[in-house]
Amino acid sequence: MSSASAAEGGAGEFTEVVVVRHGETAWNASRIIQGHLDVELNEVGRQQAVAVARRLSNEAKPAAIYSSDLKRAAETAEIIAKACNLPNVVFDPALRERHIGDLQGLKYEDAATQRPEAYKAFLSHKRNRQIPGGGESLDQLSERCVSCLSNIVEKHQGERVILVSHGGTIRELYRHASPMKPLHGKIHNTSVSVILVSGASGRCIVKAWGDISHLKDTSVLENAFGGDKHSA
Fold first, then answer.
1. How many angstroms separate the Cα of 89 from the Cα of each of 43, 81, 104?
2. 151 Cβ contact partners less than 8 Å away, ≥ 6 residues apart
3. What is the pTM of this model?
4. Is the CB of residue 72 less than 8 Å from the CB of residue 135?
5. How far is CA 58 from its chain centroid?
6. Contact criterion met (CB below 8 Å) for 153 and 17
7. How do residues 108-137 score in pLDDT, each as one tens digit?
8. Are 167 and 227 in contact (CB under 8 A)?
9. If both were cysteines, with which of 7, 76, 103, 132 could 49 make a disulfide (CB 3.0 to 4.6 Å apart)?
10. What is the C-alpha to C-alpha distance for residues 78 and 88, in angstroms, rounded to an integer?
11. Where are the alpha helices (DSSP H) in 84-202?
């Protein structure tokens, strides 16, 4: 079995998808809603990216690495790719964070008063509700990121791949992989989750979720915005 194989115990039909959230940004720390706005990593975020890259370089070699094209994910992915001796990162806008419409660029604490309709839509449990200002519904977010996941699995059946994305997008991938078990808690910056996906049936197994053991020597901002059910 090759080092890139996902399977344990010979279940080679499964692709092992290692899902990593991007490192911290200054806007995460300041609780500013990012969405599709292109904010780069801060110094802590770069240290987190180095830490997760070191961890992944000591695990089975991946066949490929895919990433959102937004800077905070792209830089995280490039640091990982270098550590894992991968020649390039495949950037895909389908792995971007949810577009948050009129709320993008606002402090979360100010959103309710400055953009009340958009704020209500953002907090709505109606999955088909779009956010004013060009924002996506949860259904739209799910459709694009799950479709991207399916395309990646089709190209890499039985292999291990890394996928670098954002809190809201990762939550939708979890919802797809484990629809009967709600996700509680926060998806921290550079947390590592693992989903096994069958290329034949699309069946998913959540093997690990939200692991940040690699950050024991690096700070984790518990009150940073993003990574929870209101991630953006």
1. 21, 7, 27
2. none
3. 0.91
4. no
5. 21
6. yes
7. 999 999 999 999 999 999 999 999 999 999
8. yes
9. 76
10. 8
11. 108-114, 116-123, 138-155, 167-177
Show the tokens assigned to 68. Answer: 């959102």
Mean pLDDT for 83-88 is: 98
Measure the CA–CA gap between 88 and 134, rounded to whole angstroms: 32
Q: Is the pLDDT of residue 147 over 90?
A: yes
Distance CA 192, CA 125 (A): 27
Rounded mean pLDDT, 170-181: 95
- Nearest CA among 83, 80, 88 for reference residue 19: 80
**What DSSP designation does 22 have?**
P
Nearest to 175 by CA among 159, 157, 193: 193
Q: What is the mean pLDDT of the chain?
A: 91
List, by residue number, the catalytic residues: 22, 97
User: Taking 80 as the threshold, does the pLDDT of residue 6 lie above it?
Assistant: no
Say what the pLDDT of residue 222 is.
Answer: 64
Q: In degrees rounded to 5, what are phi and psi of residue 14?
A: -90, 135
- Look at the alpha carbons of 117, 122, 125, 129 in this order and tell me if their dihedral is positive or negative: positive
Print burial letters for 144-172: b (CB count within 10 Å at least 16), e (below 16): bbbebbeebbeebebbbbbbbbbbbbbbb
Provide the 10 A C-beta neighbour count for residue 14: 25
List Cα–Cα distances, 37 to 48, 166, 217, in angstroms.
21, 12, 29
